[in-house]
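The protein record passed on for reference:
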Amino acid sequence: MAHPLTSGQPLVAVVTPAYNAADYLAACLESVCAQSYRNWLHLVVDNASTDATREIAESFAAKDARVKVLSFRQFVPMFENFNRALAAVPPEARYLKQILADDTLHPDCLMAMVAAAQNDPQVAFVISRFYHGSVLSPAHAPRKAARLSGHTVARNTLLGRSNLLGSPSVPLMRIDRLVGWPSLFPVARFPPGHPDAPPHNQGDKESCLATLARSDVAFLPEPLLRLRDEGPSATGFARRVGGWHATRLDLLLRRGEQFIDEKALRTGVRRTAWKWARAMAWRSLKLLRRRDQEFLLYQRLCLENLIPRLREGGYEREASMLTYFKSGLKRISPKSIDLQTKSPATPPEQQASEESSHAQPH
């Protein structure tokens, strides 16, 4: 028999991939347990943590039967673990709410998002504003509740105009409308050939594109969750190596034609290439004396991958400009950077809490 508080409420699967998340996981779990919406199941998927992550999750599971802990001994990279977590969602769940281990939900988050989804069965995502640290985001979000075209949301995200989807923690998803479920996240590495095999910095955005091509988005103006502002994460790696523009350019070249008309796409590619060039110029001057190997290696490999693709697409001017930067980076790179002899470092997603992939607009 259904509990009186959950009668008529569809099941929401809340999923938290966790790797060495002991410093923040308790706050995340507490925010889920405090939800005014009652029919949820919280799956905490431990990716071979070496700290107290599993013990913290199991302590909550002992107090609330709706909290379930899956602990894996084999570590897998970030997006592989995201997909592994989604594969554990029970078939009776109607909605998915990911919440990364260092983020928290407002007590009425699930109640408000499920109500919006129930009011419009054609939407695949329900999103809201959120606090990124102390900053209310996104800056250019609608002021009122609205139904947004999935095609438009994808277009603006690809062009870098706005990122309403925020991070994997932001949307509530209607499972039966998700394209590719449960393997939503792309696992290809970028740039190819990098000895640390970093995840694609835009992979969380790409995970939504196929669904946005055929479904719309419900937007709620109230902030319903909080994303931690700083911390060790895949985003931290992207900041260190300056990965935002190169990966956005890759995604535009691969997926832009699906959502963007030819003129706007060409403008977007050109602007992104020039932004990348300016960012490299500024960063190279700052790092010239330090010869930052991590930055130089990442940028060189991105350039080697993207310059030929730009030429193939007819962006000869941009390709020539980036070729100049490639030559410059090669001149200032220390001789110790050698893809054939460089011993692989610890993968960036294993260096720290890989489940903090807060991809804000850049």
In short: The chain has a mean pLDDT of 88.
